[in-house]
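Ticket #4471: complex job returned nothing on first submit. Input attached below:
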Amino acid sequence: MSWGATRFHDALGAKNRKQYREATSTHHRKPRSIGGTNDPANLSELPRSRHAAWHTLFQNFDAERIAVEINTRYLDPEYVMVAERRNHDASRTDGVQPALRIA
Ligand SMILES: [Zn+2]
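Support reply: We reran it on our side without changes. The output follows.
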């Protein structure tokens, strides 16, 4: 991730790359413990406090389990969050997959 492309550097008050690196940590969107890689598409730089909060809430759960946790513990009961896999069906060219509904 380039310094100029960072989302949080202003909010973190980081004045240079060193301060930014000290204020953030690298999150694996699909955890390495369940097969996530170091591919840049799987990595996010997060403020350390948000990163810690994420893992306090969701540990190293996969996307479907996170949707279950959100739906059963946090979300307005009139709504449902859906975990939907991207680019799974090679026959589709639009990148959209049928929704996997988690009740
Ligand atoms: Zn993480």
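Strands lie at 24-28, 43-47. Closing as resolved unless it happens again.
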